[in-house]
Design brief:
The protein is an all-alpha fold. It has one domain. The chain is 78% helix and 2% strand. The protein is built from seven helices and two strands; from the N terminus they run H-H-H-H-E-E-H-H-H. Strands 1-2 form a two-stranded antiparallel sheet. A hairpin with a 2-residue loop joins strand 1 and strand 2. The protein is elongated, with a radius of gyration of 20 Å. 20% of the residues are buried.
Length: 161
Amino acid sequence: MSQRELGSVLFAAVGVFIAATRIPEFAIQLSVLNSSESDRAILISALVGTLLTGVLGVLLLLYRNVLARRLFSSSPSVPSSARQYQAVALSLLGVYFIVSGLAGPIVAYGQIQPSSAALLLLGLVLFFGARGLGNLWFILRFAGRSRGERAVQQGDEADRP
């Protein structure tokens, strides 16, 4: 399995998770909207955010191969180092946070919602800085160890299934 294939499978999994978790949320919000006479603008805003998130999850599923082709190398094997796995995982986690940040309206009634903006910013940092964060994690993890100890530790991790 190549990095692209792994990335494609993981994008599909994230897309299905995002879309599937929004189905019951959408149904609940729709029933509350129909049965409640409270502030309909807030309820409609939440409903649109949930619908947008579900659609983005489906789009991740549909365009998983395109995204994987653009993001991951065409090397013939699965990533061999922990740093490469971390970069893939952090990129996917970034996608999840970006979609979650887009779910809630970032600007509502002329004010920025800090929670949505923070999720969006965190997602962008994770997505675009995944390799750097993987390298930082490696540096922090092995700080103070000699090169020989790091090589032995890396060799042990590479041999694990």
